[in-house]
Records
---
Amino acid sequence: MGLGDNRGMSIEITEELIARQPAEAQAVIRLLLRQVAELQTRVAGLEARVGKTPENSSLPPSSRHPHAKPSPKKMKEGRKRGGQPGHPKHKRPLIPPEECDDVMPLKPTECRRCGQQLAGEDATPLRHQVWELPEIKPIVVEYQRHRLTCPCCRTQTCAPLPPGVPTGQSGPRLIAFTALLMAYYRQSKRRTAEFLETLLGQPCSTDLTVKHQNLVAAALAPAYGKLVEQLPEQDQLGIDETATKEASHMAWLWTFVAGSFTVFGIRLSRSAEILAQLLTDRFRGTIHCDRAKMYWALGLDPPPDVPRHRLQWCWAHLKRDSQALIDHSDHQVKRLGRDLMRPTKKLFEVWARYRDGTITRRGFQRLMKPIHEEIDCLLLRGVFSGNPHLIGMCEELYGHREWLWTFVDQPGVEPTNNASERSLRHAVIWRKLSFGTQSERGSRFVERMLTVIETCRQQSRNTCDFLTTTIEAHFAAHTPPSLLPKV
C-alpha cells in the first residue's frame, strides 16, 4: 500500500518492509493500514452517495430538499413567469340565478350626471356572484329511550335504538370526515381534533380520533379483504414498496396496482414471503417491478403453465441507472452510460409512438428489434470490461435480459412501473409527516384508507361518500359496499 503526504511524496509499504520492523511496530503498522483501508472504503461510499439524485438513482423526488434546484434539462426561453400575452382568459363561469341561494337586484335611484329620478328595469343586468361558506353547526339528534314497566309482571323494558344508529356519540359522516382528515389530508390526530372543534364546533379529542380510526378500519375490513382476494386473478400488477415504521419496528409499505384498483399493505418484512402470501400460487399475470431481489423468485421459479419472463423490469429505473453511469468519475463507466442512454431514449420514443397509435404492434416490434440487439451488445461489453463498477450491474441485466423485454412480447404490458410509483406518492408524503404508525391497529387503518383513497381515484368515485356508506352499513350490520369494479 502506498501512503502519500501533502508534498507529493509517497512511501510503498510492503510486507518485506513491515517484516524488518520490531513486533510491536508491525502490529501498529498493520492496524493503521486496516484503518486507512476502511476509511478509504467509507469515503468512496460517501462520495457515491453524494452524487445520487432522483434523476440518476431510485431516490424518490421527495428526498430532494424543497429549495434544491434540479439540473436544467433545456435552455430557458427568456419569458417571464405567469400568463403570456394573448393567452385565453380563465374565469369561473356564473351559475344560473335560480341555483343561487339569494338574488339581490340593485337599481340606481337617480342619474349619475343630472340627478333625475330613474325607474324601470334592465333586461340584461350585470351579474356579480359572491361565494361564501355557510355557518357550520353540527346536527345533534337526541334519542330518548323510554323504560316502561309491565303492569302484569312489573318487568321494565327499554326501547332499543333504531337500526343503524351508533351506540357512540359520533355519526357516520363525522367518522368518515375524521378519517379523511387523518389519511387523505395528512393531518395529525391533535390537529384533526383542533380542526373539528374550532372550525366545525364539534367537541373532539385525540382519544376520540383514535376511536374513529379503529372503527373505520373495522368497517373497511370486508371491502379490503375482497380486493386482496382478487390480487391473484389479475393479468398485470405493478408492485413497489417503501420503508416505514410500526412503533419501534422497521416496516415496509407495499403497493399492488391493478387496472381498476390498488391494494396497500404494511408488513414487517420486505421478503418474497409477502408476495407469496398475497399473490399465492394462483397468480398467473405479469409483474411490473424494479430489480429488487424478492421479485426474482416469481420469474425464476414460476408455476409450470406460466412463462419464465412474467416480470417486467422498469425502464424508468434503468434510465436513471444509465444516468448514474454518465455521472460517474470513471471515463470507461461514463462512456458505457452514454452508449446505453441513446438506445434507451429511442426505446421510449418508439413506445410513445405505439401508445399513441401512430404505429402498429408489428411495426413497434420491428423497430424494437435493433434497440434490443444494441442494448444486449452494450451489456455484454460491460460484462467483459474488467471494470468492477460495470461488471455486477451488466451481469445482472444481461443474465435476466428477458425481463427487460416482456412489454415487447406481451400486448398491454408497459415498459415502466410508473403506476405503482404514482400510487406511492401520497403514501410517502403521509409517512414523512407522520413518521409511520404506532401500533398494528394503526397500520391496518393506514393500509385500508390508502387502498380506499387510491381505488376511488382510479374508479372516479367520491371517497367521502364511499366511507360514509360503509360506516352506515357497519352500524346497521348490512352488507358494505364493494371496491371491486362493476362488470
---
Amino acid sequence: MQHEKSIGIATAIAAYTLWGFLPVYWKVLGDVPALEVLSHRIIWSLVFVALIIGLGQQWNRIRPIISDPHQVRLIILAAILIALNWGLFIWAVESDRLLDSSLGYYINPLIAVLLGVVIFKERLNPWQMLAIASAAIGVLILVIKAGRFPWLSFALALTFGIYGAIKKAVKATALVGLVLETAVLAPLALIYVFSRQTNGQGALGRSSLTVTLFLLGAGVATAIPLILFAYSAKRIPLSTLGITQYIAPTMMFFFGIFVYHEPFSLINGISFAFIWLALAIYSLSQTKVLRRIRG
C-alpha cells in the first residue's frame, strides 16, 4: 500500500512537472499561428490516444457513452471548453502572457470552489471564504493599481473549472474522455489544417524539422501528463493530489520571469502574494476537512 502511494505521488509530480514544461513546448512553435497549433494538438492527440485505447482494447468503454444522448451532450460541451482553454493557453504563451496564465491556474482551485457553490449548491466553510476573500483582494489590486482586469487568467480558470465540473458527470476514464472530446473537435481541426497546407501557409513540412516534429508530437505532449495524472489520482489522497497541482503554475511563473523576462512589477508581486496566501489557506482547509471526514 505504501509502495503504491509512493508511486502515485511520483507520477503526480511527474504529471504536473510535464504540464509546467508545456509553455516551453509551445514557445518552440511560436512562429506558428495559435489556431494552427491548437488544430494539430487536437488531431495528434486523437491519433495518439486512439492508438493507446486500441492497444489496451478499451473500445468497449466508448459505446455506452456515445449511446447515451445526455453523455454525448456533456462530451460536446467538454470538448468546446477544453478547446477554448487549450487555444487561450497556446495564444498566451506565444503572446508573452505566461504570468497571466500562471495566475489563471493558481486561481483555478478557488474558481472550482465557487462553481461548487453556484452549480452544486455546496456550502463554504470559514477557511474557504477567507481564501476566496484573499484571492479577491489580490485581483482587486491588479484591477485598481495596475488598471487592468486579468481577463485571460479568469478565462483560463473558468474554462478549465467548468470543464472539470462537467467531467465529473461524464462516465468515462481520462483517456476515453479525451479521445471522444478530440473526436468531436477533429473534423474542424482537419479542415483548418488541410486548408492551410493546400494554400501554402501550413507549417507542417514547410517549417524547420524541429517545428514539424513538435507539431506531430503535440498529441504525446498532451496525453502523457494526463495518463500519469489518471494513474496517480487512483493511488493518492485528494489532499496530496491537490498540493501537487501548484507545481505547474509555479513553473510557469518562474519561466515567465527568469527565462522569458516578462515584466513583473511590485504591484504584480503584491497581487500574487495575496493569491498565494489564498492557496495556502485553501490547502489548509482541505487538509482539515479531510481529516475530519477520516476521523
